[in-house]
Amino acid sequence: MCGIAGTYRWPGGQDITTRLTETLAHRGPDGSGTYSHHAGDGEVHLGHRRLAIIDLSETGAQPMTSGGLALTYNGELYNAPELRAELTAAGVRFRGTSDTEVVLEAWRRWGTDCLPRLRGMFAFGVFDESTGELVLARDQLGIKPLFLLRRGEGLVFASELKALAAVTGGPLDVDHAALVASLLYYWVPDSRCAYREAEKLPPGSWLRCRPDGRVERGTYWSLKDVAADAAGAEQPDLAAVIEDSTRRHMLSDVPVATFLSGGLDSSYLTALAARHRPGISAYTIGFRAQDARFEAMPDDLRYARQVARRYGVDLHEIEIAPDVLDLLPRMTYHLDEPIGDPAAINTYLICSAAREAGVKVMLSGMGADELFAGYRKHLANLIALRYQRIPRPLRRGISASVDRLPVATARRGYRSVRFAKRFLSFADLPEETAFRRSYTMYDRAELLALVDPDLAGDVDDVLAEHADVYADNELDDFVNRMCLADARMFLPGLNLAYTDRSSMAASMEVRVPYVDVEVVKAAFAVPGSRKIAGRQSKAVLKDAAGTVLPKEIVHRPKGLFSAPLRAWMSRDLAPLVREVVNEGVLVKNGLLRQEALQRLVDEDAAGQRDFSKHLWHVLSLEYWYRGATSGELR
Fold it and tell me: What whole-number distance in Å separates Cα of residue 63 and Cα of residue 125?
């Protein structure tokens, strides 16, 4: 895992590439390098920051050059041994053992046709000295980021948006539609970018820049098509597919550890990892007792300890009692875009602790909920179909009764009431609208009441985009339609994005064995009725995990990789909330309406509604916007 950057036919490209690379130093503290060459009547410059994982010698250093090709590469290739053997049989002579060299030689032999053959996570730029062409490529599922900005015939790219913002000569213009999308989702979809000029290279795609100024784009892998093809395929041995992926994801020349929350996904991966690497380390988190009690959070630590004892895992427990006033602006800087998920703080603190202990690679259970229908929203949307059969007068009575219940008192919160109110907010709606409302922050009316009236068109555009993505499939399976929408939007837009940025801020590589092309194919070959069986979510994954894990872990209540937001908002962050509502830049600039924000604060304080997540995101957005408009994020 590394940081990559570069310029193509961009004025002052050499100095800019040096600055880009320096901005990414946290992604690769083990080494740095640059490469320069003419490209038509201009120049190309590639930069690299190295986090050495495989082949720790200088033969793995980058940018890597060989036979007229130059490559700057961020990622890990889990089928590198097979591709190396195939290329060796074809006469290729390798200098070292890095997967970087495998990618370089695969590109030389197959060009863009090599991309669907790569099994892993990656983003890279490769330059061909004979043609003067630069090609950028990103992995199939959007695990690794790649931002780019084009002006005229020039291009600049980097692993992080803050690097691009640092070299443009002044603050970039905020894209207000992306800001609206962030308010709706509490993250920015992968199809959008927080700055108008910048963009994210889409997952499963490549972009080619030619020296005559032409730009060509291509798609080499489509999640929608893979899901459609898998729907009619033979159902796989899911346990074997996941174990194979886990084994491949442990390929490393440095120590590997796991995240272990005590939930199904991380416990399953940790147990499989311990089979292949006995005594592996794992890291878990806990919260201050008073915070966990106020939030009514489940005791995940006891499950994590149970898994560790059973499989001989070296468990490290980290109590999270962070100085959130200090961490909030720091995490806003590292996250690049306005992302309002406090799980980013958890990831950063765990990775920081593991890095101090000498770990460079961690395995995460990210992705299992999206692919196997493990979120509460998936089951809730199925239940909503049955709920709609209840006579409407009775439903109105239920809604009125639940609406009167408090979500919290001064001493504790009531999770069941929060869940009930959330469910009733979408249970009567049509399929796509209900699914969107089940995991987003506001409905259309609430969002329009919150933002500047001039942004009403952006609100409708963002809502229409969700509807279009949700409808863009050939699946006749409701559960798998939800899983596909999550894998296309929620997974790359939020979970993979914050995981990459938070972990790399601590110079840690996080690998995601569930987010693997073969696991994805297997997941969409499973019908929805096997993902949600009765009222049991992730049923097929539980069946697979049951061959390894004890029943009390497989069938425990779902855990939360989150944070005690209500406790933080009512105590640590209450003064900051007041400041942002009354004097914040977003309010002063007219982007958010003060009276709407105050209403959120008042209803949350009264315990009638739980707006802690909404207010946390407003704080995140405020800090991000201050930095974006002042240039402080550069």
Answer: 10
Calpha distance 169→153 (Å, rounded): 18
The residue assigned the tokens 């049955």 is 386
The residues that bridge with 314 in the sheet, in sequence order, are 281
Alpha carbons 605 and 601: distance in angstroms, whole number: 6
DSSP of 250-300, one letter per residue?
Answer: T--SS-EEEE--SSHHHHHHHHHHHHHSTT-EEEEEEE-HHHHHHHT----
- Please state whether 124 falls in left (phi above 0), alpha (psi between -120 and 50) or beta: beta
pLDDT digits (tens, 9 = 90+) for 491-529: 999 999 999 999 999 999 999 999 999 999 999 999 999
Per residue in 53-104, pLDDT tens? 999 999 999 999 999 999 999 999 999 999 999 999 999 999 999 999 999 9
> Angle formed by the axes of helices 324-335 and 612-630, to 10°?
60
> At residue 291, does pLDDT exceed 70?
no
> Residue 332: left (phi > 0), alpha (psi -120 to 50), or beta?
alpha
For range 597-621, the mean pLDDT: 90
Whether pLDDT at 287 is above 80:
no
Non-local CB neighbours of 66 within 8 Å, separated by 6+ positions: 95, 101, 104, 105, 108
615 CB-side CA count, 13 A: 30
- Look up residue 122 and give its two tokens: 């990656």
| Model confidence band, residue 311 (pLDDT cutoffs 50, 70, 90) | very high
Cα 585 to chain centroid distance, Å, stands at: 27
- Residue 449 and residue 461: Cα distance in Å, rounded? 16
**Mean pLDDT of all residues belonging to the chain:** 92
**Could you report the per-residue pLDDT of 162-206, keeping only the tens digit for each?**
999 878 766 789 999 999 999 999 999 999 999 999 999 999 999
Alpha carbon distance 323, 159 (integer Å): 28
Determine the Cα–Cα distance for residues 197 and 164; give it in Å rounded to an integer: 10
Give the helix/strand (H/E) hosting 319.
strand 314-320
Distant-in-sequence, close-in-space partners of 8: CB < 8 Å, separation ≥ 6: 39, 42, 44, 134, 154, 155, 156, 209
Q: What does the alpha-carbon distance between residue 155 and residue 149 come to, in Å, rounded to a whole number?
A: 6
- 49: Cβ–Cβ under 8 A, 6 or more apart, which residues? 2, 3, 4, 21, 24, 25, 27, 28, 29, 31, 32
